[in-house]
Amino acid sequence: MLPDGQFYLISACKDNNPMLRDGMTGDWIGTFIGHKGAVWQSRLSPDSKLAVTGSADFTAKIWDTFTGECQYTLPHQHIVRSVAFQKTSQPLLLATGGFEKRLRIFDLGRGSPSTSNASSPTSPTGVAEKPTLMNYELGAGVHGGTIKSIVWCSDYNLLITAADDKWVRWWDLRERGPIASAMLDGPPGTCEINPSYKSSSSHKSILSVAAGKCAYFFDGDTPGQLVKKVKTAHDIASVALHIDERKFIVGGSGDTWVRVYSLDDESELDLHKGHHGPVWSTNFAPNGKHYATGSEDGTIKLWKFCNGAYGLWQ
C-alpha cells in the first residue's frame, strides 16, 4: 500500500498479457505487452513502480508500471514459474525460479535498463543487444523439482522457496544455502507471507502454504517453525490468512469454490461460488478489508471481508 492509501493488483495469465488494475475497484489500468508465452506469475515492487513477470517463453521481464515499457528481459533456460522482488522500499534484488530448478538472484543495481531496441547498446555487428542484469545461482542442485513460489522475508537477507519436490526451504543470502526446510504432504500451490493489518497489532507475520488438502502456517520470522497445519476435506490450490480475524481463505483445485475457515477450531465458516475453474490464487488487500481470487476461468473476483458498507459494496 502506498502512503496515500492507494494499492494495485497485477495478474498473471495464459494469454501472454499480464494486466495492472486498481486494487480497490479492479478497474483496468494497463496491459504489459511483450511476452510470447503464458505468464505464470506477476509481482509488484513494494513501491509499485516496477512489475516483474515470469513466463513460459523462458524469460522474466521487469516493467515500468507508469509507462508500461519493459526495462529488462532476463533469459532463462526453461519456463519461469516464480518471481519476487526483495521487500525493501526500493528493491535491490530480484529472485526467479521455475522448471530449471535453479534459484537465481538478479542484482537490480547492476545493469543499464533500456525500453526499446533503438536505444539499446549495439554489438560490433550493429545488432541491438537486450539489456540484462548480473545474477548468480543460490543453492545449486538443491531443488529436486520446479520452483513454484518464491517469497522474500521482512529480513531482506532471507527468502523462501516452495518446490514440486514437496519441500519448503528458507535461504540466507549470507550463507548461500538453505538454513531450514519443511516437507509438505504434496506439491505446493501458493506460498505467501501474511502480515497483520493493524499497525498496533502484536501478531507476527505468518507464511501460509497450500499443498494437497492441507494449509500450512509457519512463523514468518522463525525459519522452519510450523505454527499450525490444517487438513481440509478438499484439494486446495491457494490459501491466504487474515491474522487479525483468525480466519483463512482457500481456493479449490478440485472444485471451483472459495472457502473460509476458522484458524482456531478449523471449522468451515463460509462458501463462495462464482468461479468456473480451479482457484489458483488468493490474496488479501493491504488493508485486509477484501480479498481477490484468480481462477483458471480467466477471471479475478473481489470479495468483501469486513462489516458494513465498503468500497464497491455500498
Low-confidence stretches: 114-129
- Roughly how many Å is the radius of gyration? 19 Å
- Overall morphology: globular
- C-alpha termini separation: 22 Å
Total helical segments? 0
Outline the biggest β-sheet: 4 strands, antiparallel
Could you state the order of secondary-structure elements as H and E? EEEEEEEEEEEEEEEEEEEEEEEEEE
Which structural category fits the helices and strands?
mainly beta
Please state the average pLDDT score. Answer: 91
How many DSSP-defined strands? 26
Taking strands numbered 1, 2, ... along the chain, how are they ordered across the largest sheet?
4-5-6-7
- Helix share, percent: under 10%
What percent strand?
A: over 45%
Keywords:
314 residues; mainly beta; 4-stranded antiparallel sheet; 26 strands; 46% strand
